[in-house]
Amino acid sequence: MTTTLEFARFVRETDYEDLSADVRDALKRRVLDSVGIAIAAETDASTRIVDRTVAELEADGPCTLWGRGRRASPVQAAMHNTALTRYLDYMDSFLAPGETPHPSDTIGAVIAAAEYAESTGEDLLAGLAIAYEIQGELAWNAPVRDEGFDHVTHTVIAAAAGVAKVLGLDELETQNAIAIAGTAHNALRVTRTGGINEWKGIASANAARNATYAAMLARNGMDGPRDLFEGQKGWQDVISGPFEVELTPGERVHDVMTKRYVAETYAQSAVEGVVELAEREDVDPDDVTGIKLETFAGAKLIIGGGEGNRYEVENRAQADHSLPYMLAVALIDRDLSLTQYERERILAADVQDLLRVVDVTANPDLTERFEAGEMPAIVDVTMDDGTTYRVEKDAFRGHPTDPIGWNGLEEKFDAVAGEYLASGERDELVERIRGLDERNVSELTALLA
């Protein structure tokens, strides 16, 4: 049975030197992806609510609030900056059979703590490797979705571990930090069921804030229930059941996908497929009478109607968790980017009409393939003359079997954040992230201010 001490020792014993060159490179790409998304999210209403709240609570501090030209405590910076990296639903995802969390939800917290601790880039990469590894191992071995808990229940533990590393906590303090975070902050799955609301995009920021605060408390001597996982009425007893982890320095980062489209994780293959089909067959949306998607059970559950009505779509939060909306708008526009989540586009008659002829079914064979590592999708588009076009996908560009390298990530960065940066600023930021282990963290955050 996994113990809290096992996690704490992994945190203490993992250093930059333990990371392979491939892991270091992959972590830097995760930072670039997250920073680009954050820049594009600065003007959204929900991230501005977080910003206003932070401003009301703190006028200054040691940590950078990205994009705002202000500073705050590491706790509030973790909240603010994670809201930016997460809100657009364009972040990375870890693919496990029973859980799909977003390890990049830990990046804002670990960077804030590293800036506070005046850490080197090497220290930061070690902290991120730990956070990614723990998030992935928990998702794979101890999924919580079916028990009614949200995946940010994993995030708060992973982020606390990464923050503990860059703050330099000793083994006992690290154990306390993980214990406090994991005991006190178990989020309910209702966040992503029924009528989706704006909290969906902010819940992980709250987890990042709580993780950072837990680590700060432990740093200052607070004891926690150090038998968090294994104790009576502890995490395994109440939430996950018994499980074992196999922690290696950062290798789980290779199991993380990059989103090609602005869409929920499980929609990526289906969206890529319907865009390819529309372009291949030069489909006229006005002539479409039906769109049928065969997918795996998790996709049907989360974004296909298993956890609430996905045909009533009125806002961004509902749209990016509705397979009917995403497939309809992607077929019409032959794209699914930030433009497709503007309120006027969501409410437009063409997409509202077309989404109602989308049928989503779970195929047991596709579920088996998903659990074996694919992300399969079969899309049939039927025209008013009876013709049916089909596309079948095993995965998508950005899946761990078809990863996006530096060139592709820089293209994504330019597409999502390019309009907000002068060319010199863009090049300096990319160069700084590529050479992250040769710099201090403050040199990166200075560019993000």
From TrEMBL:
This is Uncharacterized protein involved in propionate catabolism. Residues 261-430 form the MmgE/PrpD C-terminal domain. One of its GO terms (molecular function) is lyase activity. It comes from the Archaea. Residues 6-247 form the MmgE/PrpD N-terminal domain. The lineage of its organism: Archaea, Methanobacteriati, Methanobacteriota, Stenosarchaea group, Halobacteria. Belongs to the PrpD family.
